[in-house]
Amino acid sequence: MELTPPLLQLATQALDLVLDFKRPADAVLSAFFRENRKLGARDRGFVAEAVFGVLRRYRYLSHVVPAANPRTLIIAWLIKIQGMSGAALEKFAKPELVDHIRSARPEGLPLAVTAELPDWVVDKLRPSMSDADILALGRALQQPAPLDVRVNTQKTDRDVVLARLQAEGMAVEITPFSPWGLRFKDHPAINRHPLFLDGSLEVQDEGSQLLALLLEARRGEMVCDFCAGAGGKTLAVGATMASTGRLYAFDVAEKRLAKLKPRLARSGLSNVMPELIASENDVRVKRLAGKLDRVLVDAPCSGLGTLRRNPDLKFRQSAESVAELAAKQASIVRAAARLLKVGGRLVYATCSILPEENEAIVEGLVAEGGFALQPVNEILAQHKIPLDTGPMLKLSPAIHRTDGFFAAVLTKTGA
Ligand SMILES: C[S@@+](CC[C@H](N)C(=O)[O-])C[C@H]1O[C@@H](n2cnc3c(N)ncnc32)[C@H](O)[C@@H]1O
């Protein structure tokens, strides 16, 4: 597309709004597009690509430009990442700036800059990962995520859906690990497709789909999705229960639970009970103590495993916010654990890559007694899923092409 001064100005304005990092970048961009309703699809596309492109390589680009501001960052992105020639940029930037950017070399930069991660994140990863692995992870997190969907087995079969989508000319394949997943090569507007509208498909990263598999909820059981949010995992768990038994969907956020309702209606599930709770210590939670067969805790977390989709998150989190989250996670998992019968199963999961939000929370619970770790690799092997990351599930975009994802399975051994 042809870059014009007004288009560059619009992208600069949008980036300026995003860079105060007070609100999620996608929400800021949506509001920006609502205010600039007359923008055509191609112009919107450029603005979004420039904003997300800069966010993905923000640390490197900030290093490359002498005085980083939204406009110079976009110019650096156009030259360094998009490969635009200096001549094409003549009317937008002084030759000295273009020369300066063009001559900057990536060699010798600190690991955190090359990996596009905050220094504090690299410091937290270093005790458990080599520098080469941190770099590979950081690089994978810079790439846009593919579009994964889960096929609702209550309505149809994966093979049927695959054949239909391929017959419609879509580039789509089955996911390597989830038995319900399909992965698109491009990003079709799937939420307007009849298979989405009739509840046969839900958008869900493959890693998230695996949680329902690890919970192994059975027909007729009493189950709780403790942090259900908009219900992505609730729907997957409900399908494994064949819409029988009872599946409580708890959350403290009314707006998120409200988003579950239309999805539930599309899904055809009739066993889900959404419940707004005030906190993990709500009386509604206490009333169910010792009564449930399975509990899923998809805990509120830093989201650092989802940087492919939300590259701004790393600048909106801090070592302090992660410490607060870890305290909340420990409190939630303890409250959720009390719901289980002896012999019941707890799955604790996050989309974080930090041990502090993952292994440390699980180890803390096990150390308190009454829970035993059940190796995830054994459960996956029983389902013939070719995935072995050890006793806890640790998915990485660098290795598995999913979001960064963590899950552990625990069995309640005593009251
Ligand atoms: C990672 S999100 C869950 C996403 C959801 N499971 C899905 O698949 O769409 C974490 C959720 O935990 C909720 N949450 C935060 N504090 C909570 C608490 N004390 N008890 C229960 N849910 C809580 C948040 O509102 C948020 O929806």
From TrEMBL:
Annotated InterPro entries: MeTrfase_RsmB-F_NOP2_cat, MeTrfase_RsmB-F_NOP2_dom, RCMT, RsmB-like_ferredoxin, SAM-dependent_MTases_sf
SAM-dependent MTase RsmB/NOP-type domain sequence ranges: 137-413
A molecular function (GO) term: RNA methyltransferase activity
Keyword Methyltransferase assigned: yes
One GO BP: RNA methylation
Active site: residue positions: 351 (nucleophile)
The entry's keywords: Methyltransferase, RNA-binding, S-adenosyl-L-methionine, Transferase
Amino-acid positions noted as binding S-adenosyl-L-methionine in the UniProt annotation, renumbered to this chain: 251, 298
Family: Belongs to the class I-like SAM-binding methyltransferase superfamily. RsmB/NOP family.
Stated name of the protein: Putative tRNA and rRNA cytosine-C5-methylase
